[in-house]
Design brief:
The protein has a single domain, classed as Rieske [2Fe-2S] iron-sulphur domain (Rieske Iron-sulfur Protein, 3-layer Sandwich), CATH 2.102.10.10. It is mainly beta. Helix content is 0%, strand content 37%. The radius of gyration is 13 Å and the shape is globular. Bound molecules: FE2/S2 (inorganic) cluster (FES). FE2/S2 (inorganic) cluster binds next to loops.
Length: 114
């Protein structure tokens, strides 16, 4: 659970088979926008909130990666985040990180929790 946010428990996002490698899925936990994706077979999930200004990272639905498909990219000022850790490695919030969201697969369904 993230301090300051209500615990909404585990929320069903979508069937596991709908998220292939390098595919993203946006969803909400309570009123918190979040996104998840699969990279090299592993699921990762974060709050959709840039640590620089606290606004969503993407301008286009489910488009979060830079042109080289290496880093999560903030569309507003160009901060770059390591997909596996959420660490900001370049941009105005370098040294900060995305807020992770817990994610699991249960009975063929992806579930997420703060
Ligand atoms: S709002 Fe994301 S880098 Fe400024």
């Amino acid at each position: 659970m993230v301090e300051g946010y209500p615990d909404v428990g585990w929320v069903t996002v979508c069937p596991d088979e709908e998220v292939a490698n390098d595919q993203f899925r946006e969803f909400h936990l309570g009123d918190q926008p979040c996104f998840l994706f699969r990279r090299r077979g592993e699921l990762h999930a974060y709050r959709n909130q840039c640590p620089h200004l606290g606004i969503p990272l993407n301008w286009m639905p489910e488009k979060f990666m830079d042109l080289d498909n290496c880093f999560i990219h903030c569309a507003t000022h160009g901060a770059l985040f390591t997909p596996e850790s959420g660490d900001c490695i370049a941009g105005p919030c370098q040294g900060d990180r995305l807020i992770p969201v817990k994610v699991r697969v249960s009975g063929g369904v992806i579930e997420a929790s703060l």
